[in-house]
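Task card 7
Instruction: Convert sequence to C-alpha cells.
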Amino acid sequence: MEDKTREHLVNGSIWLRGLHMLLMAVAYNVVEAMLALIAVFQFFCALLTGRVNEPLLKFAKNGSIYIQEVLEFLTFNSEIRPFPFSAWPDEAHTGEDWLDETADDEEAQDKKAQVKEMLDDDQDKSH
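Output:
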C-alpha cells in the first residue's frame, strides 16, 4: 500500500466526516418523511378550506432548505455541517397565494353587493 493511501486511511478528520455524513443521511430521511406528510396535510387543508397552515408552510420551506444543505454536505459541495451542527434555516415562506384571505373576502363582498343590488332592483320594480 502506498504511503499516501495509508495516510488517508488513518486520517481521523475523514473518518469524522464519514460519521457526520451518516448522521446527516439519517436526518435527511427523517426530514424528507416529515415534508411528505406535511405536503399531504397541506393538500387536504387547501382542499377543505382553500388555504394552508402557515406555520407548516414556513417549516416546510425551511425543511426544503435544510435538505439542500444536507445534500451539499453529503456530496462534498460544502464543508458546512447542517443542523444540529449549525443553525436551522430561518427563511420566510413563499406561499402567500395560499394564505391570502383578502382575495376571498373581496370576492365574497362583491357577490354580496351584487345580490343586494338585485334584491333592491326587485323591490323597486315591485313598488
